[in-house]
Amino acid sequence: MLRKKTKKQFSKTTLESESKLSPLERIKGRLPDLMEADLVFIHNKKGLLRRMLRRVTKSYWDHIALVLFPKNKEKGYFYNLIIEAVDPSGIEIHKLNKYLNNPDKYEIGIKRVPNISEQTRQRILAYMLMNVDAPYYKLSFSKFLFASLSKEYNEEFLGRQRYSCSGFVQKAFYEAAGWAEREHFIFREDFLSPMELQEITTPGDIAKSDKSEWIYNKH
Amino acid sequence: MSWLENRYKNKLEAWCKFEPKLQLADIILVHTKGSFIGWSIRKLTRSYWDHVALVFAIPNPKLQFYNYLVIEANRKGLEVHRIQEYLKNFRHYDIGVKRVPGMDLATRERVLAFMLNQVDQPYDLPRILGFVLRSFDLDVLKNFSNLFVDKNDFICSSFTQKAFYEAFPENRKQDVVFREGIFKRKKTKEAFVELLNYVSPGDIGKSDKAKWLYNERR
Fold this sequence. Notes:
In chain A, strand 3 (81-86) and strand 4 (90-95) form a beta hairpin. Chain A has 219 residues and is of the alpha+beta class. Chain A has ten helices and six strands, in the order H-H-E-H-E-E-E-H-E-H-H-H-H-H-H-E. The N and C termini of chain A lie far apart (46 Å). Chain B has helices at residues 3-18, 36-45, 84-87, 105-117, 126-135, 139-145, 156-167, 189-198, 201-206; strands at residues 27-32, 51-57, 69-74, 77-82, 93-99, 211-214. Chain B has 218 residues and is of the alpha+beta class. The interface between A and B is medium-sized, with 22 and 22 residues.
């Protein structure tokens, strides 16, 4: 009798905690506790341009956002809020649930840059907020099409194309870091100046970089 | 320089002198020029103001943050924007600022937390139709107007009202009820729903519960 009751109670608790999970978490597992400036990678399952972008940048991910305000019940924040560059409006703040509640359309992965001082983390936050409403660089469908078809053009294209989302993330880390630690926050490996790299860093470069560590759904 | 350009320049200069006095959770009232919806709201609520936003972030030179951000419910939903959205073109907007007195940092942070929890919340456009129906002095239409209100969604002023109401402690909630006379007879659940549903930017503009700091108009 007691065992039956305990089993019933256990399954009820499991069901309750399962029901609190978002649809994507039910598939990929519960999200870890997030921190400010965690990197959120997005795989957009719909859209030809997004598919071409992944092909050209040779990555599973086609978009990136940053955690701005993580869930914090003491402060009364009940949601994880992210900041991202979106087409066409530019840099905006949204709930992470935007991606978690729609697993048919999106999949997400999360990385964390280790050993960031609290001061640097706060400066990254400030940089992100400073850039709210900054405009979006539109991605050209035809250029991505050519780049996905021609290997030669692909190399040239990857050296020129600006990405608003990953460029913003790269700049946030680079600008917020002190002089001594800046080199630890350059995600793209290339023989270019930091100024150039900030503009052309792709979501794939940041995903592949060993300057940050996977904490959710590694790809 | 034309007379009009000179007028806008003076306005901008006056704003620049005032801007450093802004604090978190200050109320920004907006008059939108050349917008039919803005004009309709002003006419229906008999006020100079048709939109309201709250100050969400102020400069912090220690972190090299030099912007003023506002949070507001516009037709796309609840969003954060730079205040320059209104300042860069005084031809399209006029703004005023009010402040709820006696707020400590903890209360301001609770107002902010409420705002953050509502980001991405959709805008309740049909509620404007509810405002239209309520403007007629007929009980039938007033009751009918409730059908156009979505209790989970917001318009700019109901969001602002709820942010303050939720942030204040129980014994001080009355200090932030911007719609006059709403709890006059009885503090019922219906009266509270009525408050959230039909508080307008004009009510906030006219209310004595928030003090004018800049560009006082009713």
